[in-house]
């Protein structure tokens, strides 16, 4: 998989992408991630990428020309299944969306800033808009990092145990069952006996039951229907 991330703050990705699972995925060459600075495609000497909005109002708007130049340049090099804009207006990110995008080969992610991007970009270039929650961030970079992590970890070979992702929360519209590790007893608190029994059938049943119970208690909305 290849992912191009369009941003005016590429340095914001240095932490999330240089550690843990995403770093390992890049080292294994299971994914390549390019951070593309939109300012490099600005046409004036000041590398300006924003301007006042027509009609008045507070806040600046990201200009159409630098972003369009950037997208056009990248599309000459590869074909993208989706050009994604991280936006509060978009479809709310869930596990099903991450699963779908993890099967793509080439993705482009645009990070907005200020009051957003010129609407003509959304009409002419953007194929999908995604939100990570019903709140507003200072820019799309953090949202893009979250989205990228959610799909990269699903790529075959990224996790040491490829079955691990299949038991994550939301994969079956359920939260995960409780998990435990050593020691089996700590200050009087014991690991459930069934998990120490070695009986795979009973352990599976216990985990399914606890997943349903936890989902019903904490996220009953996931059980509707």
Description:
The protein is of the alpha/beta class and 225 residues long. It has two domains: 2-152, SPOUT methyltransferase, trefoil knot domain (Alpha/beta knot); 169-223, Trp Operon Repressor, Chain A (Orthogonal Bundle). The protein has helices at 14-17, 20-27, 64-75, 95-101, 119-124, 141-152, 200-218; strands at 2-7, 32-37, 50-52, 60-62, 82-92, 106-111, 128-131, 185-186, 189-190. The strands form three sheets. Strands 2-1-6-5-7 form a five-stranded parallel sheet. The longest helix has 19 residues, at 200-218. The protein is elongated. The mean pLDDT is 93.
The CATH superfamily title of the largest domain: SPOUT methyltransferase, trefoil knot domain
Contiguous low-pLDDT stretches (5 residues minimum) are none
- Count the beta strands: 9
The residue fraction in helices comes out at 25-40%
Secondary structure class reads alpha/beta
What share of residues are in beta strands? Answer: 15-25%
Q: What overall form do the CA principal axes indicate?
A: elongated
CATH architecture of the largest domain: 3-Layer(aba) Sandwich
Q: What is the CATH topology assignment of the largest domain? A: Alpha/beta knot
Question: What characterizes the major β-sheet?
Answer: 5 strands, parallel
Radius of gyration: 22 Å
Task: For the largest sheet, list the strands in their spatial order.
Answer: 2-1-6-5-7
The CATH class of the largest domain turns out to be Alpha Beta
What's the number of structural domains? 2
**End-to-end span in angstroms?**
35 Å
Helical run tally: 7
Mean pLDDT level: 93
């Amino acid at each position: 998989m290849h992912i191009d991330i369009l941003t005016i703050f590429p340095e914001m990705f240095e932490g999330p992408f240089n550690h843990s699972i995403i770093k390992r995925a890049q080292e294994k060459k299971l994914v390549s991630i390019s951070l593309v600075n939109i300012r490099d495609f600005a046409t004036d000497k000041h590398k300006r990428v924003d301007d006042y909005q027509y009609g008045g109002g507070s806040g600046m708007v990201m200009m159409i020309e630098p972003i369009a130049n950037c997208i056009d340049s990248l599309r000459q090099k590869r074909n993208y299944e989706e050009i994604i804009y991280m936006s509060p207006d978009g479809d709310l990110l869930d596990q099903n969306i991450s699963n779908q995008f993890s099967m793509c080969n080439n993705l482009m992610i645009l990070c907005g800033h200020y009051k957003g991007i010129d609407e003509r970009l959304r009409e002419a270039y953007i194929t999908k808009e995604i939100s990570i929650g019903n709140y507003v961030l200072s820019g799309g970079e953090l949202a893009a990092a979250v989205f990228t992590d959610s799909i990269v970890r699903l790529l075959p070979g990224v996790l040491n145990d490829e079955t691990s992702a299949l038991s994550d929360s939301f994969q079956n519209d359920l939260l995960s069952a409780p998990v435990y590790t050593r020691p089996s007893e700590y200050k009087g608190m014991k690991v459930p006996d069934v998990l120490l029994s070695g009986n795979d059938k009973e352990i599976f049943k216990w985990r399914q039951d606890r997943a349903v119970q936890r989902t019903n208690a904490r996220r009953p909305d996931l059980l509707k229907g």
